[in-house]
Amino acid sequence: MGAARQPVIVQEYDPSWPGQFEQLRARVLDALGDLAVGVEHVGSTAVPGLPAKPVIDLDVVVASAEDVPAAVERLAGLGYQHEGDLGIPGREAFRWPSGSERHHLYLCPRDSPELARHLRFRDHLRAHPEVAAAYARLKLDAAAAHRDDRDAYSAAKSGFVEQVLRAASAS
To answer: Three-state DSSP class for 49?
Structure first.
């Protein structure tokens, strides 16, 4: 069953998620060497206590857009399949290697607006537990209402996400 057809399942926070991220991070850093300037744990699994779909999101950061082609090539050596930017400039998406646990890997230059967005959202939720709690309720409700429609699930969260990003930019 492809990811697009799998039901939306949001589960309670799993304290093993940071460790899963660290394993992925170490593997990617080993392959990329000096091309990577960082690997960030983003998405809901990066916020302690926040319910999430059990899929780790990581942003691999390179110094500039000029480093992207070489990084794409090295990630392919690990079995990652490059999917392009999927309509989001400044963020290259990859399908996880066959035989590994499902996760989302994105490659971003350090100055990518999408990277900044991911970090701003994550950091705001980490710093504001009341906002994270409201987001948790929204995610659980949206998953229940849109179990078989990932696009509708995402759309149900988008207004809240934009509101959080505006608040994070203002602070």
So the answer is: coil
Residue 73 has pLDDT above 50, yes or no: yes
pTM over 0.90: yes
Range 97-114 burial, b when 16+ CB lie within 10 A, else e: beeeeebbbbbbbeebeb
Residue 131 CB neighbours (<10 A): 17
Q: Are 52 and 16 in contact (CB under 8 A)?
A: no
- 2 — pLDDT class (breaks 50, 70, 90): very low
Helix or strand holding residue 163 (H, E): helix 150-170
Does position 108 have pLDDT exceeding 90, yes or no? Answer: yes
In angstroms, the Cα distances linking 12 to 31, 36, 48, 50, 125 are 32, 31, 10, 7, 16
- Spatial neighbors of 66 by CB under 8 A, at least 6 apart, are none
- φ and ψ of 132, to 5 deg: -60, -40
Note whether 38 and 81 are within 8 A (CB).
Answer: no
All structural domains of the chain: 3-170 (3.30.460.10)
